[in-house]
Fold:
Amino acid sequence: MKDKQTVENLERQMISELNKLGIDTDKNLKIDNMSSGYRDYFLKKNAARTSAGYELKVDGVVTLGKVFQTLEGLGISNM
Structure:
């Protein structure tokens, strides 16, 4: 069974990798939305799910391609 990672852990990994690509995440990355599935957890007794959406500003298509590859490598989906 695949281990689930927390949103916070994935976020730290994502920021680290984006910084390695030369992206200033303090300026160019912002949280767009966050949600939690606690309602489903209490109603269905499944593991609670949390998600976050981000908005990232990049300076070109080459950088964008690198970002997609990096996020895919981290297992981050719904880009």
User: Anything to note?
Assistant: The beta strands are 29-36, 50-56.
